[in-house]
Every structure is written in C-alpha cells, then in structure tokens.
Amino acid sequence: MYTQALDSSGAEPGSPASAGEVERERRFQERIDRDEKIEPKDWMPQAYRQTLIRQIAQHAHSEIVGMLPEGNWITRAPTLRRKAVLIAKVQDEGGHGMYLYSAAETLGVSRGELIEQLLAGRAKYSSIFNYPTLTWADIGAIGWLVDGAAIMNQIPLCRCSYGPYARAMVRICKEESFHQRQGYEIMLTLARGTGAQREMAQDALNRWWWPSLMMFGPGDAESVHTAHSMRWKIKRFSNDELRQRFIDLTVPQAQFLDLAIPDPVLRWDEAAQHFITGPIDWSEFQTVLKGHGPCNRERLGARRAAHEAGRWVREAAAAYADKHRDRVGGAERHVQTV
Amino acid sequence: MNEDWVLYEVFIRARSGLEHKHVGSLHAADARMALEHARDTYTRRQEGVSIWVVRSSEIIASDPEEADALFEPARDKVYRHPTFYSIPDDVKNI
Ligand SMILES: [Fe+2]
Ligand SMILES: [Fe+2]
Asked: Which of A140, A145, B24, B66 could bridge A186 with an S-S bond, Cβ 3.0-4.6 Å?
C-alpha cells in the first residue's frame, strides 16, 4: 500500500575517495539528468544504492504489514461481494510487497535479510498501519484515504531513476486505483445508509484523516534528505507538495459524502486555489514512528506468528524440492520445454 | 534464518501471438512452485496466457560497461534503414 517519509534516515553521499570516483559520480549524475534509467548492473554511488535499498525495503514492508489491519476484517465483511473484494485487495498488497522485495534484491540485499530485519523490529514501515481498524467503516476509510494517499505518493515513483523500482511502481499503480474506489464505495454506501451507518463513516473519517495526511512525511523544512533524493530523481516532489495535492483532491470527495473533515479551521483559499488545513500534530506521528502507536506491537507480533506458523510449510517444500532433484537429477523440466 | 529459495525470472506471454516478456522475479523451492507463484504474483488480472520461469543464475547478460564497444558497430550503418534511400515522390508503392 504504501510508504511515507522514506528518506528519514540513513546514508548521505560521502566524500568521494578518488579522482576516478569523482569522474564516475559525475557521469552517473549526467545519466540521471538525461532521464536515463539506472539498471542493476550499472555503476552507482554507494549512497544511491543504500538510499534505494532502505526506501524500497521500507516500502515493501509497508505493503506486507498493510495486509494486517484489513485482513482482520475479511471474515467480518458484510456481504459476499465485499468479502471477495477485500480478499482481492489484501492479496494485491501481498503482491506489491513481492514486487518491491524483488526490486530491492537487485541492489544486492537478500530477501532473507529484509524479512529478518522486519521481524526483528529493526525495519521501518509506514506508521499508518499501527492504527487499529475498529469498525467496517475503517475498511472504507483506508481504501479511500490511505490508498488514496499512497497513490499520490506512488505515481511520481513510476518515473524514479532506478529501473526495477520504477517498473514495480508502474505495476503497483495500475492495481491501486481499484483499492481507492472500493473504499470510497464503502463510504458512500454507509453515508447514504442509516443514521448509525453515517455515524460509523464519520467516526472512521475522524480517526483516519490526520494519520493519512502524515503519510506524506514531515514538512519540507524538517525533511533533511529530500535534496539528494531529488537530485537522484528518486523523489520528484516534496512531502508538502504531495500532501497539498491530496488535500485538494480529497476534501471535495468528503463534501460529496456529506461528511465533515475533522479540522475546524479547514478553509478554501481563493487566492492560492488550495484548501488550507490546521496544523498537523507531529508529536503523535513521532510517537507512532518510535513504536508506541496503538498497534505497533500487535502488527509485528502477527507477522512473526505468521512467519513461524509457515515454517513447516517452507521446510517441507524445500525438502520435497531437494528429494525431487536428487531422484530425477535436475528435474526442473516437468514443465514442457520452451 | 533460512537460506533464500532459488531466484527465478518470470516471463509472460500477454496474449496469443505475442512474445514472452520479462515481468519480474520471485523465489521458489522448485520450478513447479515458481510457476504457481508467478501465476499468483504476476497474473491476478489475466495478464497472461503462458508463463516461463528461468533460474536467474542461468541468465547470461552483457556487461553495461562494454555497451559502447558492443553496440558501436551498428551506429554508423544508417544504410540499413529504408529512410536512407531517396526515391522520387512519383514512384509509388515502394
Ligand atoms: Fe493498495
Ligand atoms: Fe499496495
């Protein structure tokens, strides 16, 4: 689903070691300036590689952890149609995680290492998934707002300078649009329903609005690594630009639902042609980011439990593959040859 | 931590009549699992009618550092393209 504030820590371009390095970095930057894509076997500065590994891994983890708050509601979806849709969405998020882990691996990190970092609690993922999904309306609000914010963030990444990441993002963006639409459809149904259903929808909007705005990461003044990421075309727009775009598109959608955005000072600025929100409570964001959100422990606990519960399946599959290889000798070809 | 399963590259034929195209990679214990995972990972929306999986280690790739030397010989042979030849407008169907 998505990623936030991904450049929040980590490698800086170090001082280049030699004249040769300087020259290679210069040529690398020239390729980027010409909008060429960088591919796995191409030379790249260490800091570019490290920044990408960190960002893509955090993004992949976010997709995987993002399956949990929604997966939680599959058995309780109100109709068979909603259940089928939710299963498809959650499966998509799993797929997104797979595309992204694959992209990260092209930079020289192993899948096992990445999973290990997530399970050990050493990896970051989007803090939006550390909020609970209390009612069915939350599934609507997540699709509409969280996937909506994700799309806003992800579309520019389709033009990212690193080829495998950009291609994964193209695939992901194609799939995300249904996620947002099914969420909005849930909200619309509730908003047009009984009084209790309307209230449920409003309550979900109240709880998800601000965390969704925080998904874009800290304000530009605090976002330290933006400059490098911009120069390398890993990032194309600043956090505040994307957040503003999201606000401008989303407020009218809330108005159509006839639900109130939980921001008493929200107003339309005619001169700027933007909706202006009240201040964001970043202390809450920091608390959740540091691991003290409502569900941080529960999410990782669920991931670890799933990993452990699946261990025997992985071991059995590996044992079967070994046995089969020994017996038939390179029997990779039960598939018809091409 | 377990060793990762073998890495496979996945190629998909989108429609009958088209070539297989590289779409990404995945890990699997064996070839059959690679095909099944490829189905689940890359064809959830009827993106294909046929899948190839190849162990990534079996792929032999050209070296990007040698790209210039490798492709340079074709660069000045513009006469391999039809637009190189000027034919009067009056001549039809050529
Ligand atoms: Fe999504
Ligand atoms: Fe996603």
From this structure: A140
Distance, CA of A29 to CA of A47 (rounded, Å): 13
Rounded CA-CA distance A57/A123 in Å is 8
Looking at chain B, which residue has its C-alpha nearest residue A89? B44
Whether pLDDT at A329 is above 70? no
Q: What is the mean pLDDT of residues A74-81?
A: 97
A contact set with B (CB within 8 A): 39, 41-43, 88, 91-92, 95, 98-99, 102, 105, 110-113, 115-116, 167-168, 171, 175, 314-315, 317-318, 320-321, 324-325, 332-335, 338
Cβ contacts of residue A105 below 8 Å, gap of 6+?
A: A111, A114, B7, B25
Cβ atoms A129, A65 nearer than 8 A: yes
pLDDT digits (tens, 9 = 90+) for A263-282: 999 999 999 999 999 999 99
Distance CA A231, CA A221 (A): 17
Claim: this prediction has a pTM higher than 0.80:
yes
Q: Dihedral sign, CA of A51, A55, A61, A64?
A: negative
CA-based nearest residue to B31, from A94, A111, A330 = A330
Contact A192, A202 (CB under 8 A): no
Q: How far apart are CA A169 and CA A60, in angstroms?
A: 11
B7 forms bridges with which residues in the sheet? B27
